[in-house]
Specification:
By secondary structure, the protein is an alpha+beta fold. It has 4 helices and 6 strands; from the N terminus they run ααβββαβαββ. The longest helix is centred in the N-terminal third of the chain and has 17 residues.
Amino acid sequence: MMGNTNVMNPIPLKALSQEESDKKLNKLIKLYDLISNRRIWAIDLKNNSEMIGLCGLIHNNDNENEIAYRFREKFWGLGYGTEIAKGLIDYGFEKMNFELITADTYILNKNSIKIIEKFMLFDKEFYNQKDDCIDRRYKLTKKNW
C-alpha cells in the first residue's frame, strides 16, 4: 500500500520501497507500544479478512486527537472511508471520551476532504512542515456530534 504512488501522493508522501515500508510499520508498532493513547488498526473485509487499509486515532502537530485512515487503491470510492471516519469519531467520543477530534488533510486530497466534511467543520489551512505541503484542519466537538 505504501509503495503505491497513487495511495501516497494524496497525503502527499513519496512511495516507499518494501524495506522502507517495513521500517515505517515497525516504527509505528513501537510508537504504539510506547504511547498508550494512540491507536492504529488494520482495516479488513468482514467476509474474507483481506486487509484493505489502515486507520487510527493519533495526535496532530498541536497535540489534539486526530482521525487518520489510508486505503489500498482498489478500495477507493466504495464508501469505506466514510464508514471508517464515522467509526473512528464514534470510538473517540464514546470509548476514549475525547472532547475534540480533528482531521488534517492535504488541500489537494479532494476525496478525503469530501469524507471529512460530512462530519467536521473546517478550522484552518496551515503549512505542514513535516510533509512540506499545505494542509486543512477540520474539527468536531463531542457536544456537536
